[in-house]
Structures are given as structure tokens and as C-alpha cells.
Amino acid sequence: MTALRALWSEMQDTCTSLGLMLSVVLLAGLARVVARQQQLHRPMAHAFVLEFLATLQLCCCTHELLLLSEQEPAHPTWPLTLIYFFTLVHGLTLVGTSSNPCGVMMQMMLGGMSPEMGAVRLLAQLIGALGSRYCIGALWSLGLTKYHVSERSFACKNPIQVDLPKAVIVEALCSFIFHSALLNFQEVRPKLRIHLLAALITFLVYAGGSLTGAVFNPALALSLHFKCFDEAFLQFFIVYWLAPCLD
């Protein structure tokens, strides 16, 4: 009976976490609808709001996914399944945004985006990444599950489990593979492309997650590990900001 109660409690916490992530996606989606209606004639402001909401959604959901993965570290199948599912959700809902500074810089280098628009999008990603920490801290402070403790979002839990050169290689390689796939999948049908990218991201997280977390997104890394940047800035700057941009 005790075991059944414990299992039921775990299931309730998991369902609550899933509901929280889906609520974030829904609210961000509603905000995007309003933004598209209100800012059709202001492209810079429109792009800023959409990029901000996309980064906020991505970071908040990833905070919750990371929390769930920590509960069953010996059984990664369930977290990886969730990563695949929510990558599909992000791919379907965040069309037209990148939520990744590397993606913005790649578009600028390829001539697909003006420097002014790139700067606006990068600023939106920075604010969205930092804002997500306070949003998730406020949500966790509600104590919806036994794992929701606001202090967790502000603590430093160093994900780097290898020496610096290996960590740089892991993040740079993951970023290179991902952005190469983005370019090569342009001609693939959108529905199939989303599944291919979701499978690729899930594989990269599986392969590199135990080494560096396999973030390969400077904005997401800042949101997840902001306190670590404060305590070991140079190491985290090289691994999570510089390395992904080398591709």
C-alpha cells in the first residue's frame, strides 16, 4: 500500500509538471496571437515580442524538463521521450523564431537577416532567457509538486562533467550538427522536418547530456545556469557561449 501511494504521488507530480509546461505553451501562444494582431505594422517590435515569447517558452519548459529528468537519472527513457515530444511542440508553435543566438548569427552571416533585426532578436532572447528564471522561480514557489522549490532555479548545479577542451568539443559538435541539419532540411516537407529535428535534438541530448548537458544554445544555457556563469564565468562563457558559435 505504501508503494502504491508513493507511485500515485509520483504520477501526480509528473502530471502537474506536464500540465505546467503545456500551460506555458498555451499562454505564450495566446500572447503571440495578440502580438500578431497588434503589431503588424511594426516589424521590429513584432519580431522582438515573438522572439522574447519563444525564448521564454523554451527556457521555462526546459527548466521543468530538467527537473523531471533529475528524478529518474537511472532511467532516461521517459525524459528523452518528453524531450522529443516538447521539441515537436516547440517546432510547431515557434515557427519564425529561433530562440537561439547561434541561429540568428547564422542568418545574419548568410544574408538572410539585417544587422538591426539581428540585434533586436538577440536582445529579445537575452531578456527572455533572464525573465524565464524569474517566471519559473515564481511558479515553483507555489509548491505545486514536492520538487518545486523556488531556490532550485537560482542554484548552481554544474553540468560540465569533463575537462574544458572536451566540453568545448561536445558543445561545438552538437551545435554544428544541429545547424547543419537545419540548413540541409530546408527542402524537406515541414511536417517531416519537425520530426527529424526533434529526433536529432533528442539524440544529441542523449549523447552529450551526461558530459555537458548538450545545451548548444547560449540563451538557454544562460537561463539554466545563470548562477554558474556568476561563479565560473570564463569556463561557462567558453563552453556555452563561444563553443556553440564556432560552427
What secondary-structure arrangement, pairings included, does this model have?
Elements: H1 2-38, H2 43-71, H3 77-93, H4 101-109, H5 115-140, H6 164-184, H7 190-208, H8 218-224, H9 226-231, H10 233-242
Helix pairs in contact: 1-2, 2-3, 2-5, 2-8, 3-7, 4-5, 5-8, 6-7, 6-10
Distance between the termini: 54 Å
Mean pLDDT: 87
What proportion of the residues form beta strands (DSSP E)? under 5%
> Roughly how much helix do the residues carry, as a percent range?
over 70%
Q: Could you give the order of the helices and strands?
A: HHHHHHHHHH
Molecular structure report:
With 247 residues, this protein is an all-alpha fold. The chain has helices spanning 2-38, 43-71, 77-93, 101-109, 115-140, 164-184, 190-208, 218-224, 226-231, 233-242. Helix 1 packs antiparallel against helix 2 and helix 6 runs parallel beside helix 10 (233-242). 37% of the residues are buried.
Offer a few descriptive terms:
transport, Aquaporin-11, globular, mainly alpha, transmembrane, disulfide bond, 247 residues
TL;DR of this structure?
By secondary structure, this protein is mostly helical. Helix content is 73%, strand content 0%.
